[in-house]
Task: inverse folding
């Protein structure tokens, strides 16, 4: 039985979400290919937008939050550079340089179903080891959260796994990562942001029950410093208060009776879940 406010999908509807997720995976891959020193963040935006449009989908980021004369978010992707955690606005004037850390967050709508995903990558020259570790720790925390998601489990199991993974990576790497609170994952389906909110910190066995047919976006955000953030005057871009660099990883997933499928991963999550002993189901 669904928890109040959480949208449940049929198998066919989850398969439709998988089609949107596969297209988004292709779009983000195109964005990754376009990343290079000298490229602008608008160039990356345009590469992602072209694949979404060619696939017959529309962006769910472009004009998000529009009200009256306010056009909402002005681009297809969020392009967050260095100390920008999320919601950075692409610009022709923002030129990527060797050693930058770029997070791409994007989504699309295909046949009425939404997908949402994010990656963090280095630009150009070999980065510092601490930033290699930062991105790896963020990715691992996302996969730990996905591996903890199961039919009739609790949302707190996912949040607990993410938090524990960040702490363990910090211990293994010899540094303390900042795990950003206040921003996190969410339900997804016929809208991009739906119930429930998915915190990146939590207690095992707590929170709403994850009934079969639930779809979630799992998205940890961690920093090389303190977790405190602030919003810039543009009303969108969120940066670390201490200027530390940040990473952001995200996949949309489907939970069914027979397992989990990563909707926005080309391989449905097989590689990322393998270290956790989890084999994703196929919705293709």
Result:
């Amino acid at each position: 039985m669904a928890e109040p406010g959480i949208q449940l999908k049929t198998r066919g509807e989850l398969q439709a979400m998988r089609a949107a997720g596969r297209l988004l995976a292709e779009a983000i891959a195109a964005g990754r290919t376009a990343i290079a020193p000298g490229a602008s963040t608008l160039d990356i935006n345009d590469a992602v937008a072209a694949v979404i449009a060619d696939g017959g989908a529309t962006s769910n980021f472009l004009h998000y939050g529009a009200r009256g004369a306010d056009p909402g978010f002005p681009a297809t992707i969020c392009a967050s550079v260095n100390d920008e955690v999320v919601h950075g606005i692409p610009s022709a004037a923002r030129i990527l340089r060797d050693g930058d850390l770029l997070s791409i967050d994007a989504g699309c709508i295909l046949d009425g179903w939404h997908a949402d995903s994010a990656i963090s990558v280095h630009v150009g020259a070999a980065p510092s080891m601490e930033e290699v570790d930062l991105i790896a720790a963020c990715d691992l925390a996302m996969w730990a959260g996905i591996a903890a998601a199961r039919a009739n489990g609790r949302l707190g199991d996912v949040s607990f796994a993410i938090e524990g993974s960040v702490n363990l990576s910090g211990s293994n790497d010899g540094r303390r990562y900042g795990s950003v609170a206040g921003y996190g994952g969410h339900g997804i389906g016929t809208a991009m942001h739906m119930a429930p909110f998915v915190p990146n910190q939590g207690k095992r066995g707590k929170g709403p029950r994850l009934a079969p047919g639930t779809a979630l976006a799992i998205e940890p955000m961690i920093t090389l410093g303190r977790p405190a953030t602030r919003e810039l005057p543009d009303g969108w871009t969120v940066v670390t208060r201490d200027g530390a660099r940040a990473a952001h990883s995200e996949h949309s997933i489907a939970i069914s009776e027979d397992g989990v499928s990563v909707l926005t991963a080309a391989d449905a999550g097989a590689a990322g879940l393998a270290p956790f002993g989890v084999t994703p189901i196929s919705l293709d």
Observations:
- The chain has five helices and 16 strands.
- Residues 11-34 form the longest helix (24 residues).
